C-alpha cells in the first residue's frame, strides 16, 4: 500500500520549497521592522472560539471547519484563520492591560475544508500581522503599507490594493436594513434568500453572473457611513496616498469573515485566475467583545504564502535559484573522503554553503552531482592532491581549475563569496 497527500493538500519540495521560505521571510520582514513581535498559537482551538469569533453564518464556520472531539470530550477545531487565536491569546495573557497597541505577527498552517482547485487548498500557509487595542487610522494605513512593501520586496509588480469601509455598529445596521430591502426584491434561490436574512453583506460577494447582474443597483455601504466612519476612512486613504501606496476604492468589498468593521482591504494579483486574492484584512473593533473580552479595537491582515509564490511564478520571478550552494566536494576514493569530510565541516562552520558527494559513486557520477547541485565550485580531492596537501577548486561555470592548499581553502572560498 502506498499513500498520497490528502486531497486539497500538497508537499512543498526542493528547490521550489525555498521560495515558500523566501516568501514567508519577505512578507513578515516589514512588520518585524515596524515593532511587531512574534506570536505562535496552537494549531487547534476550542471550536466555539471560531464559531463565535469568525461568525456563525460565514462559509468558514458553516462548512469549512475541521472539527473533532478530543479524547477528553472537548470539541476542537483546526484553525481556519489566525485572528481569533491571536485575540484569544491577548485576552488570556491580559496584554490589553499594558501598553497599546499590541503589535504581533505570526506565520503557520491553516485548515479549511474548501473545494480544492488551483490556488485554493485545504491546508495552506499564511503570514499574519495584528495591531490590537488602538483606534487610529495610522495603524490601518501602517499595516497596508507593510504588506505592500512585503510584496514589493519580492519583486512583485502586479499586486493591486482594494479598499473599503464597512462602517461601525452605529451606521452598519441602517445600511444592512437598506441592503436587505433591496435584496428581498430580487429573484434569488432559496439558499441566497436565507443568506439575505442572516448575512446580507455576503450576498454582495456572490460570484454567480445571474446574481451579479441583479446587484448593479444595490445600495453601497460607502453611501451609508456615519460621520465618524467617513472621517476615519478619509484619513486612512490620505495616509496611504502620502506613503505612496495606490489603492482602488471598492464599495462592494465585504470579505468572508463576520468580524470586520470600518477599514477592509484585499490584495489581488491578476495572474492567478479565479483565486486572485493574495492577502486581505481589516479592522475588527468588536471581535474581542464577541469572544468575552473588553473593548479592544484592532486591525490586521493575513497574506497567503502559497498564492504569493504562485503570483511570483506568474510574473516569471522563480527563475533564479534561491540560496545556491557555494561549493560541492568530490572525494576520489575512500581516503579522500576521510580527508575532505573535516574540510567540508570546517567550511560550513565558516558560514559557507557546502555539500559533498555521498554513496561512493565514481568520478563521473560525483561530478554530475556537483553540476546538478548548482554550486559555484567543485572541490576535487584525489590521491595526488592528498600528497600535495591541496584540493582542486574547479569553477563549474568556466571549467577553470586551481590547486589550493588545504589550509587556505576557507580563505579562498570566503574571498570569492561576495
Ligand atoms: P482570508 O483569511 O480568507 O482573508 O485569507 C487571507 C489570504 O490567505 C487569502 O488572500 C489567500 O491568499 C490565503 N488563503 C485563504 N484561503 C486559502 C486557501 N484555501 N488556499 C490557499 N490560500 C488561501
From TrEMBL:
Organism, scientific name: Microbispora triticiradicis
Highest taxon listed in the record's lineage: Bacteria
Database matches in PANTHER family: HISTIDINE--TRNA LIGASE, MITOCHONDRIAL-RELATED (PTHR43707:SF1), HISTIDYL-TRNA SYNTHETASE (PTHR43707)
EC number(s) stated in the UniProt entry for this protein: 6.1.1.21
Ranges of residues in domain Aminoacyl-transfer RNA synthetases class-II family profile: 23-342
InterPro entries referenced in this protein's UniProt entry, alphabetically: aa-tRNA-synth_II, aa-tRNA-synth_II/BPL/LPL, Anticodon-bd, Anticodon-bd_dom_sf, His-tRNA-ligase, HisRS-like_core, HisRS/HisZ, HisRS_anticodon
Record note on quaternary structure: Homodimer.
Protein name: Histidine--tRNA ligase
Similarity remark: Belongs to the class-II aminoacyl-tRNA synthetase family.
Keywords: Aminoacyl-tRNA synthetase, ATP-binding, Cytoplasm, Ligase, Nucleotide-binding, Protein biosynthesis
Catalytic activity as recorded in UniProt: tRNA(His) + L-histidine + ATP = L-histidyl-tRNA(His) + AMP + diphosphate + H(+)
UniProt main location, coarse: cytoplasm
Annotated GO MF terms: histidine-tRNA ligase activity
Alphabetized CDD domains for the sequence: HisRS-like_core, HisRS_anticodon
Localization per Swiss-Prot or TrEMBL: Cytoplasm
Pfam families: HGTP_anticodon (PF03129), tRNA-synt_His (PF13393)
Amino acid at each position: 500500500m502506498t499513500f498520497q497527500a490528502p486531497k486539497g493538500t500538497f508537499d512543498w519540495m526542493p528547490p521550489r520549497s525555498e521560495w515558500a521560505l523566501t516568501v514567508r521571510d519577505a512578507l513578515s520582514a516589514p512588520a518585524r521592522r515596524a515593532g511587531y513581535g512574534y506570536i505562535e498559537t496552537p494549531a487547534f482551538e476550542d471550536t466555539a472560539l471560531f464559531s463565535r469569533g469568525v461568525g456563525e453564518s460565514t462559509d468558514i464556520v458553516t462548512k469549512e471547519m475541521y472539527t473533532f472531539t478530543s479524547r477528553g470530550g472537548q470539541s476542537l477545531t483546526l484553525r481556519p484563520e489566525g485572528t481569533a487565536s491571536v485575540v484569544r491569546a491577548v485576552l488570556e495573557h491580559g496584554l490589553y492591560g499594558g501598553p497599546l497597541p499590541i503589535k504581533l505577527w505570526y506565520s503557520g498552517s491553516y485548515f479549511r475544508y474548501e473545494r480544492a482547485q488551483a490556488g485554493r487548498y485545504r491546508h495552506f500557509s499564511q503570514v499574519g500581522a495584528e495591531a490590537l487595542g488602538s483606534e487610529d487610522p495610522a495603524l490601518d494605513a501602517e499595516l497596508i503599507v507593510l504588506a505592500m512593501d512585503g510584496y514589493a520586496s519580492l519583486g512583485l509588480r502586479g499586486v493591486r490594493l482594494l479598499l473599503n469601509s464597512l462602517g461601525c455598529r452605529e451606521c452598519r445596521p441602517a445600511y444592512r436594513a437598506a441592503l436587505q430591502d433591496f435584496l428581498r426584491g430580487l429573484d434569488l434561490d432559496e439558499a441566497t434568500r436565507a443568506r439575505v436574512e442572516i448575512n446580507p453583506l455576503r450576498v454582495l460577494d456572490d460570484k454567480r453572473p445571474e446574481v451579479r447582474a441583479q446587484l448593479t443597483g444595490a445600495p453601497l455601504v460607502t453611501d451609508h457611513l456615519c460621520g465618524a466612519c467617513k472621517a476615519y476612512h478619509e484619513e486612512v486613504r490620505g495616509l496611504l496616498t502620502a506613503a505612496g501606496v495606490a489603492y482602488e476604492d471598492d464599495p462592494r468589498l465585504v470579505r468572508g469573515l463576520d468580524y470586520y468593521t470600518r477599514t477592509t482591504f484585499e490584495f489581488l494579483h491578476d495572474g492567478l485566475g479565479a483565486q486572485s486574492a493574495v492577502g486581505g484584512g481589516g479592522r475588527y473593533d468588536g471581535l474581542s467583545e464577541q469572544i468575552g473580552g473588553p473593548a479592544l479595537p484592532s486591525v490586521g491582515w493575513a497574506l497567503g504564502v502559497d498564492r504569493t509564490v504562485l503570483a511570483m511564478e506568474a510574473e516569471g520571478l522563480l527563475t533564479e535559484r534561491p540560496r545556491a550552494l557555494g561549493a560541492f566536494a568530490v572525494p576520489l576514493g575512500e581516503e579522500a573522503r576521510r580527508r575532505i569530510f573535516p574540510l567540508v565541516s570546517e567550511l560550513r562552520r565558516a558560514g559557507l554553503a557546502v555539500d559533498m558527494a555521498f554513496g561512493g559513486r565514481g568520478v563521473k557520477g560525483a561530478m554530475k552531482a556537483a553540476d546538478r547541485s548548482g554550486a559555484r565550485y567543485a572541490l576535487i580531492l584525489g590521491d595526488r592532491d592528498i600528497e600535495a596537501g591541496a584540493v582542486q577548486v574547479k569553477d563549474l561555470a568556466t571549467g577553470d581549475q586551481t590547486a589550493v592548499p588545504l589550509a587556505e581553502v576557507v580563505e579562498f572560498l570566503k574571498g570569492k563569496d561576495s
